[in-house]
Amino acid sequence: AAPIWRATAMEALGRAGGRDALQTATQVLYDDDPMLRASTVRALEFLPVHQRFQLLMPLADDEVTTVRMEVASSLAAVPLDQVSAEQAGKLQALFDEYLDVLAKHADMPSVQLQMGIFHVGRGNEAAAERAYREALALNRQLIPAHLNLADLLRGQSREDEARKQLLKALDVAPEHGATLHALGLLETRTGNSAAALDYLGQAAAIESSGTRHRFVYAIALHDLGQPREAIKQLEKLVRGAPADQDALLALANYHAELGEREQAARYAQTLVRLAPRNRAYQQLLQQMSAPGPQVPLR
Q: Tens of pLDDT along 231-252?
């Protein structure tokens, strides 16, 4: 196939993650086509940073700038004091080149966003905040910059400032699922349960791909004392995604908590059928099928 199609397929496989993505990536990571090499670097974002480091370090001096820039972005979180002196020197040179390249296009909001993400990876929160704010000064409608800045502020226990950023993002796009979800999580952490459920519910209602927002909404309902409504939401979720193991496990546990062993066992059976080698699922099914008190699996 044409390189552009192979590159697109590799990135899609990377979003799915898992063993297949890793095996395929290792086969094409050093392909002759730089477009495919760059896409494969991006596709490996699902891996922990130490695994990315092992795979991508040989590409730190790739002959193509685009590939080197992708490697720099992917390895930003590598602590230089935990690698060899030679590797640290190569990475520092790569990071310096990355920032130099971005600096040439610093008047573009998307580039400032990239710089912010890179600085977060390097642990330089002050530089990241400056970059995110500059991105928003250039384009106040850049939703990812609002979200990233809010997440950075929340991590510094600056919840009020984070909330303001998320509300600004909501002004730009009132039905933006990721913004509503982030607001719900923020209100959950600050103890505002009613607002949290409202935002999480809105995010769940408009989710059109994936299941994360609906799943988190169901968990919030359960944790805030509405297990029946949580089960209802999870049942709706698995009707559309019948192999979602997180939702099935939550359903098994919640039914068990309510003493509904038959329903819990049914979901446990489904989990065992989906992952027959998973001992935890096997144990859960045994617990749900045995007489006596049940201990939900966490």
A: 999 999 999 999 999 999 999 9
- For residue 140, is pLDDT > 70? yes
> Cα separation of 51 and 75, whole Å?
10
In contact, 10 and 37? CB cutoff 8 Å: no
Look at residue 211 in the predicted model and tell me its pLDDT.
Answer: 94
What mean pLDDT is reported for the chain?
94
Nearest to 60 by CA among 117, 98, 115, 114: 98
Q: What is the residue-wise DSSP string for the chain?
A: --HHHHHHHHHHHHHH-HHHHHHHHHHHTT-S-HHHHHHHHHHGGGS-HHHHHHHHGGGTT-SSHHHHHHHHHHTTT--GGGS-HHHHHHHHHHHHHHHHHHHTTTTSHHHHHHHHHHHHHHT-HHHHHHHHHHHHHH-TT-HHHHHHHHHHHHHTT-HHHHHHHHHHHHHH-TT-HHHHHHHHHHHHHTT-HHHHHHHHHHHHHT--S-SHHHHHHHHHHHHTT-HHHHHHHHHHHHHH-TT-HHHHHHHHHHHHHTT-HHHHHHHHHHHHHH-TT-HHHHHHHHHHHSSS------
In the predicted model, what is the mean pLDDT of residues 21-25? 89
> What is the model's pTM?
0.86
